[in-house]
Amino acid sequence: MTIDIGRREFITFLGGAAAMSSSVWPLAARAQQPALPEIGILNSVVVGPIIDRLDALLEGLEDTRFVVDRNVTIEYRSSDGRPNVLPGLAAELVRRNPAVIVCLTSASTVRAAMDATSTIPIVFAISGDPTALGLVANLQRPERNVTGAARVTEPLNPERLKVLCEFAPPARPVAFLLNSNRVSADITNERIREMEMVAHAAGHQLVVIDLAGRPDIVAIFAGMAKQGVGAFVISTEALFNVWRDQVIGLSASTGIAAMFPNREYVLAGGLISYGADFYEHYRVAGTYAGRILKGEKPADLPVLLPTKTEMVINLKTAKALGLTIPQTLLRDASEVIE
């Protein structure tokens, strides 16, 4: 992905500023330019793992001829994994009266912004089904002031498990990690039934691990190891992004193979991912923000869902785990990291 000089400096500043209190600092150091329109960005996770996604958002913004500090400014707020502070951060952004608010990563950012304003346009780039999450009622013509792009990839979980079972240690249980707080009980139960069918067809017992109310990821891995789990699929909930490096490290130290929902885990040392292209919907969010700055209404911009999937495999990690990846998977992979 090509980054121009201005955007590279912008992203570098963002990464360096991540160590500061992200609830109070602006996204770019700049002189006051009140004449320029402002975009508020509300994020729910630490900035480090999603730097590339933010770059994709800026690319989309530039597609509509808006460049940060040239003809638009950005004000950034992040809860850094603390959902309880999101309402206050959303209220801060609304008090600034930005031209548009972009909500990233999770539905909780969108809900916080929707609770704070019914008039300022809101654009989201999140994981999950926007209709099931109650953000919009109609994907083609969103009502109110909300639109955006989403990765509806939970239906891919059975396919993820099917791929994982092709090289998972035989006869050992496989696990499915999810967070039942995010969806209804009916949806959770249906997902579990689908995963059980795939696991049993491949000759594995399925262990379901619900992370709702269980923040101790170390204890969760210890429990999987005690049960003899040989591999696991992780859901696409934004909560897991907060634990990304821990999950990858614990997968390595316990020898439990992991299937992840997106390539960022694999680039950071995870084993394999299968899911939607993250950057596609972040770029769409940037483009939509720019189109709104030019006068379009959220209700006229349909919510966009993923158009392609990708598989990324880290062979170095596979070797460290003592696993042999089938040649059929290597041929089907979008990217293989040697």
Structure description:
The protein is of the alpha/beta class and 338 residues long. The chain is 38% helix and 18% strand. The strands form two sheets. The protein has a seven-stranded mixed sheet, sandwiched between helices. The chain has a five-stranded parallel sheet with strand order 2-1-3-4-5, sandwiched between helices. Strand 1, helix 2 and strand 2 (73-78) form a beta-alpha-beta unit. Helix 2 (51-63) crosses helix 11.
The percentage of residues in β strands lies in 15-25%
Number of strands: 12
**Span between N and C termini?**
20 Å
| Mean pLDDT over the residues | 86
Strand order of the largest sheet: 7-6-8-9-10-11-12
Given the C-alpha coordinates, what overall shape results? elongated
Calculate Rg over CA atoms.
Answer: 20 Å
The percent range for helix content is 25-40%
Q: Unreliable runs, pLDDT <50, ≥5 residues?
A: 1-5, 16-31
Which key features would you list for this structure?
single chain; 338 residues; alpha/beta; 7-stranded mixed sheet; 5-stranded parallel sheet; 13 helices; disordered N terminus
Q: What does this entry show, briefly?
A:
By secondary structure, the protein is of the alpha/beta class.
Outline the fold blueprint:
Blueprint: H1 5-17, E1 38-43, H2 51-63, E2 73-78, H3 86-95, E3 100-105, H4 107-116, E4 122-127, E5 146-151, H5 157-164, E6 174-178, H6 185-201, E7 206-210, H7 217-226, E8 231-234, H8 239-242, H9 244-254, E9 257-260, H10 263-267, E10 272-276, H11 278-293, E11 309-314, H12 315-320, H13 327-332, E12 335-337
Helix pairs in contact: 1-2, 2-11, 3-4, 5-6, 7-9
